[in-house]
Amino acid sequence: LKVCCAFDADPLAHPAAAKTARDMAKKQSKASKAADSINSRLQLVVKSGKYTLGYKTALKSLRNGKSKLVLIANNCPALRKSEIEYYAMLAKTGVHHFHGDNNELGTACGRYYRVGVMSITDPGDSD
Predict the structure, then answer these.
(1) SS3 for the chain, per residue?
(2) What per-residue confidence (pLDDT) applies to 36?
(3) How many angstroms separate the CA atoms of 114 and 41, rounded?
(4) pLDDT-based confidence at 35, cuts 50/70/90?
(5) Sign of the CA dihedral running 51, 107, 37, 70
(6) Phi and psi at residue 53, in whole multiples of 5°?
(7) Buried-most residue among 12, 39, 67, 125 (CB within 10 A)?
(8) What are the tens digits of pLDDT across the range 39-94?
(9) 91: how many CB neighbours lie within 10 A of its CB?
(10) Contacts of 60 (CB under 8 A, 6+ apart)
(11) Do 124 and 47 form a contact (C-beta atoms < 8 A)?
(12) How many whole angstroms separate alpha carbon 30 and alpha carbon 36?
């Protein structure tokens, strides 16, 4: 008969602890899979589609009605974010709030610099 103790060598020896560890790993993997999916689709757009990087060019493509989707980094200033959302609403264009800062959005686009706003005009092979 083994007595479960807080000082056990293996913390996952208890079945309940093992189950919660698996559930936490499953939740983390779900979030990371979503981020990986977005990043892989962005790479596909960069390779095969047309896009513009930056706030000014995103507003131009929204005003011209060419933009299909706008991605905004999560550390974009609130006034700039609301202005882009307003233009996108007028142009009936989708807005995606990217779950990384502008450094991560730039990296996802395959660039070595920061990108606050990305406007996709032609998705290419991506859906």
Answers:
(1) CCCCCCCCCCHHHCHHHHHHHHHHHHHHHHHHHHHHHHHHHHHHHHHHCEEEECHHHHHHHHHHCCCCEEEECCCCCHHHHHHHHHHHHHCCCEEEECCCCHHHHHHHCCCCCCCCEEEEEECCCCC
(2) 80
(3) 19
(4) confident
(5) negative
(6) -110, 135
(7) 67
(8) 899 999 999 999 999 999 999 999 999 999 999 999 999 999 999 999 999 999 99
(9) 17
(10) 52
(11) yes
(12) 10
Per DSSP, what are the bridge partners of residue 119?
A: 52, 70
Q: Which residue is listed with tokens 């939740």?
A: 27
> What does the angle CA 35 – CA 37 – CA 40 come to, to the nearest 5 degrees?
110
Question: What does the alpha-carbon distance between residue 110 and residue 122 come to, in Å, rounded to a whole number?
Answer: 17
Distance separating alpha carbons of residues 62 and 94, to the nearest angstrom:
11
Give the span between the Cα atoms of 104 and 111, in whole angstroms: 10
